Amino acid sequence: MPRIPTRLIVKAYQNNPLLPLLLRECRSLDSARNELRWLHERALHIARQRAISGRSGGNYPVVGWRGLFRSMCLARSKGVPLQYILGDQPFGDLDIKCVRGVLIPRHETEAITFHAAELILDILSKNNWMDRPKAATLRIMDLCTGTGCIPLLLHALLSPHVLRLSVVGVDISPTAIRLAKENTKRNVRLGVLSERALSEVSFQRGNMLEFNHDGFPTMEGLFPRIPGLATSPEPRCDILISNPPYISPREYYHGTTARSVRIFEPKLALVPPVNLSPSMVQYRNIRREDLFYHHIAALIPRLQVKLAVLECGSHSQAIRVAAMCKDVLGKCNSTGSILVDIWSVTGYDGHPYAVLVRSR
Amino acid sequence: MLSIPWVCSRCLARSARSVRNLRLFYQRRGLQTESDLSPALLERACSLAAEHATLSDRLSTLFDPKTAKRAGEIGPVVKALEDWNNANKSISELNSLLVDPDAETELRTLAIEELESTQVALATVSDNLKRSLVPRHPFADLPCLVEIRPGAGGDEAGLFAFELLKMYITLCVRRGFRSAVIKRELGDGAEDRLSEAVLEIEAEGAYDLLRTESGVHRVQRVPATETKGRTHTSAVSIMVLPSFPDTGSAADSAHNFDDPSSDYYIDPQEVRIEKMRAGGAGGQHVNKTESAIRLTHVPTNTVVSMQDSRSQHANRKKAWQILRAKLAEARQEAREKELVELRRGAMGGIARMGRGDKVRTYNYGQSRCTDHRSGLTVHNLDDVLEGGESLETIMGSVRSWLTDRDILAITSTASEKRV
């Protein structure tokens, strides 16, 4: 990382004495200024809330915000993510609460979720979903859901167009499941999510890396618990979306992963674990960062998924994942034609990449 | 026992002046329109009345929202024309009474009195008719965005831009409009120095109210940054843009920007979207808080950047809103300019007042605010800067000036057509 020029530090100090603290993490004056403004607004807000709750009503002077503001800036200078300090992150129109131990939603995931919603609406209009009898429930599953941002945003985007939805988010971490449930209530309370979300969005704990004897992920125990899936004899799901851990151990320790991310965000959500499952023997050449995609690809034909959207870390990974999906789906060959596609858009930081799998 | 041992004579003079200035003092220098209607205008009014009659006929059998809207638009013209006809008829009757040799003298004096009052009424009635003939601005019903940028004058211009932003916010508060600053960029290391701001006013018809404000506002004062006490002149440019509603709510209106056939459609292919910083790895590798977005409309080279919100999605939405507003305003202006070019010969040198021209001067030394279009001067600068009644007086005078100008334009084009 290049050193920050002294000139820049002096300039920042003249601007605001707390600005050099933020410069350590932000590396540029513009973004440091923005963060300072957001922290300032939040510190004032918190102090005001305290003043209101402490003394009943009235317009009391706001006290103690300076100390709070300063401690926030100090925390930020040590690399604590801004979202953990502020406690939330906007995601689409939603406001997602963030706590330590759960991955913070990224801009890329936001872009991919918006695109997925467009694709889903496109498929629905092509298949005349709206004209079907009322029994038709659109079933969506999000694997490795974390804060629950993807299921919630999809529900917010689709609920005006689809009468019945069943969205389920699966994650291995109990902290994440708790947070995701809290986020549902929070956004309904804020009025950005419809009341339907309380009954239509659910979160389940599950490990998708466990295998049964068939070589499929054991999510058997999970299916009966999911309202939309339990009704049919065969577990089915229309849409599968996922942002699984995709960082290789090498990139994590010596490469591109930022220090702040390594220290403060859970490794569980970033790097796939070493997998010693016997069924993996036949896939010896699989890379560790692609582990989750392999499992998801196996689920696609099993659940008769119409559309799968898988977020990937880089273009090369997206190419690998696309090839893997073709391979796995070709072997199963249960359904007719399968379309594997790589989607990306310029104009976002770091160019989001997603592998789209469509079957008809 | 005086608690203040010594008072500077200047301070006394200043307080005396502020008391004196509470009285508003207006000077009016406006465009004079002819008091009688030109035959061309009258013809236009009559044709509109005929159209209204057919429209209301059609409406009585079948309701159609489009027809109803058009009829509602023409309604005021028909009413004004009726009034004008009535006034004219009564004048001619009274005249015939005066000419009549058999009439009694008492009746004659009454008739003379009546005639005088009717003639006064006729002037206002014909004025009303003229005003109703001016077509409404296509964006008149829309909410608006006010873009404030300091121009020549460096720091001082930035300071004054901040004051103008406050002025419009307080105006909105006083009128009960909901307003939000959607973009605020401060100058280097200062809390009260703008480098750019966009104020959104979410009230229907706010564009019509504020469109008088577009242009360069000039300030003449001794700046806070000045050490030698010299008066500086700086400029702040203000642009009032229409704010288009979201797609869903306005599918039927003419302002539907998603429809490729619409005048205000922007091809997304022509817009370049940029992140502000070239990044290395993204996604899970880093946790970026930067959410800045820059949109460039390539054919016109219009650039909008947005970084105020923490959400990239929200920034993108706002940037698109501003870009759409800018392009729509530019297209509308181009169309108006074309019309002006057509009219120029007939209008005898009345040029369009674009945003390049200075429209208003705020002079602190004389505590005066002058609008150069309507020629109105208000000697109560404090009230103007607080967004008070005086500001609205000025805005009102400019609006009537705009209407007068439109009337002149209509008259000249209409008479040209006849020739």
TrEMBL record, chain A:
Q: Which organism is it from?
A: Aspergillus cavernicola
- GO BP terms: methylation
**One example GO MF annotation:** methyltransferase activity
Q: Which UniProt keywords apply?
A: Methyltransferase, Transferase
At the top level, the lineage of the source is Eukaryota
What is the designated name of this protein?
Answer: S-adenosyl-L-methionine-dependent methyltransferase
* InterPro entries xrefs: DNA_methylase_N6_adenine_CS, N5-glutamine_MTase, SAM-dependent_MTases_sf
Which CDD domains does this chain map to? AdoMet_MTases
From TrEMBL, chain B:
Q: Lineage, please?
A: Eukaryota, Fungi, Dikarya, Ascomycota, Pezizomycotina
Which Pfam families does this UniProt record tie to the protein? PCRF (PF03462), RF-1 (PF00472)
Name the PROSITE patterns on file: RF_PROK_I (PS00745)
Read off the Gene3D superfamilies from this record. Answer: 3.30.160.20, 3.30.70.1660, 6.10.140.1950
The coiled-coil segments of this chain are: none
Q: Which family does it belong to?
A: Belongs to the prokaryotic/mitochondrial release factor family.
Which InterPro entries does the record associate with it? Answer: PCRF, Pep_chain_release_fac_I, Pep_chain_release_fac_I_sf, Prokaryotic/Mito_RF
Name of the molecule in the record? Prokaryotic-type class I peptide chain release factors domain-containing protein
Keywords, A to Z, come to: Methylation, Protein biosynthesis
Top-level taxonomic group: Eukaryota
UniProt key word NADP: no
Q: Residue limits of the Prokaryotic-type class I peptide chain release factors domain?
A: 277-293
